[in-house]
# Entry
Amino acid sequence: MKETILEARNLVKKYGNLTAVKDVNLAVQRGEILGLLGPNGAGKTTIISMITGLLEPTSGTITVDGLDLQANTNAVKAKLGLVPQELALYPTLSARDNLDFFGSIYGLRGKHLRQRVDAMLEIVQLTERAGEAIEKYSGGMKRRINIAAGLLHQPSVLLLDEPTVGVDPQSRNAIFEAVEDLNRAGMTVIYTTHYMEEAQRLCHRVAIIDEGQIIALDTPSALIHGLGGGILLLGLEDPESGPGVGRVQTVVDRVAALPAVKSTTRDDGHLKVETHRFQEALMAILDITNQLDVRITSMEKWERNLESVFLHLTGKRLRE
Amino acid sequence: MKTLNALSIRAALRVARKDIKVFLKERGTLLYLFVVPIVFIVGFSAATGVQRDPQLKAISLPVVNLDAGSGASLALLDALDQGDGIQCELYDEAQAKALLERKKIERVLTIPANYAVDLQAGQPVTLRLVNGPDASATKSEAVHRVVTGVAADLSLQTQLISSFRQMADMQAAASPDQQAFTAEIIVEQAQSQFERSRTEPLLSVEERWPQHLLEKDEDEINPLSVNVPGFAVLFIFLTAQTTAQSIYEEKRVGSWRRLLAAPISRATILVGKMAPNFVTGLVQTVVLFGAGALLSPALGFGSLTLGTDPLALVLVCLVVLLCSTSLGVLIAAVARTEGQISGLSQVVLWTFGFAGIWLDRIPLASPFDTISKLIPHYWANVAFQELFIRGQGLADIMPNLLALSGFTAAFLAIGLWRFRFR
# Structure
């Protein structure tokens, strides 16, 4: 049984009549990388903001290492490292000056501060260019310093808020490797993203968030397993009587009864088929449509990935 | 708790030190805050002097006429009314004295008893122009010029008429075949009287200032002693924009979130953001006043003194800086975009600057006198001028300090109320 390092209970955030976060419960285990996956505007940043004390929850509690955030705000904040989505750096100052400052506001001083700054510059491989103004750095270098600034005080939990937005593929890989290295060294990471590939690659567990709610929370493989053998989306049409009537209904009924099919739903003229065994179900469906002379007007197979999980759960695509 | 406070102060100083570092990298801002005001001060002073030749309009001049009823005194009042923008208002002596003491009127002109008789007899007559403690130096200067001019005209007129009358009497006493005065003698006599009216005017004006102001001769006022405080106040308040922009920029790049996520209080962050403006303004004040004092003799404007009460000067500087910093927080709280900050700052700070500093220089009695009192710049500028030009002390500028403190408290209260940390 892994130890819970951060726990959010019944977290709610309201802005007037709008509820941005609805009763979120989250237990982050020490040493894991937990992904918060959801489209833009789902409430990921609001959750992160409440966890880091930037926003006060309308209701609910947050504890870190057993300390309540409301009662021990500064002690809790000292345990957390935030890497904001934006490049939260001072462009005219050098990387060293930036790190010096961010370390100092976490109480690091003197020799210890210098050592930590040097260590971070070493980790992000920017020691040679530490004296240059940030504005002269490439986008990827800035991202690396942005992450380093959140690590200076050796936080127990690192919160990365969409750290790869606007980053080239090479720098994105460098960020992934850095996160994996940190995690291997024992750091707990909360990683928000709307890129399912990132969540799938990096995260031990993923919380899928939509409209301010966690709608699923599990390991990526378990979430994907929930898709069964795969999902097939079919457009069907009876050449004589049109879509959705007559023989099409018979097809739907017979497909639903197939042993390789888990469930079917009809939506907007389409038949969504969740399968236990995709290949077997597909062959059987083709047989049925041939026998009943129903035309297949479209066919889409959803890949077994988190994007499909999200689509399956919400009916929306992650990047809609 | 003590440790906590010490930590908060230390954290605020770190934020402030970082902001100063960022600020020092911005050469344009440095130029704007330090070089531009000096250029303005020197240029403005050279171009306008102290605005000693203003167009006068309807300044109210309370007059006590102790020779009421005499034609000569009425003629004097008429001449003053027809002069450049003076409106005489008659008071009795006791009433004028009381009003002057209560600072309800700024000055009073007294026409002495026997004014007409003495003038008629060729005896020198002195008009007394007494200024109150709150009299505007510029307006008093203007009034003094008008009264002196009218007195000089009347002196010349009276002396010439008297002289010609004597000549006419002498001509009348001479036998008809005698020509007592040739044209040359008459011209010579007129020139002599003209010269005499300048050196020994029959009608002179004695101007009085309160005792503590007497030591300061008006002639000592040099343009820089007016323009240095004026522009210093304008540019110190312009640093309010720097505070607002610095907060906005911090929010824009996202470092504001990082500050909020750090184990320091919001009050600490805000103090840290306000402190650099305070320090910058302080340095700016020292630079501008120092440059003024150094440049003044070099530019031929004479010496520029910074008053006789260093404590009062320091206090005014500190309160003005606090007021400017608080205004910056207010602007940051009200404006939501960079454009709004820039627009609001330009409009508010330049308008305030113009209304609070230069409207007071316009030597006319107008609603602007009241409007400018609603602006902190006015109180700051007047406080500096009281210290620099009139050599006043802390007690004299206490109303200014209180007014500025009031503005500071109001700006800060509204700013904090409206401030969005998110």
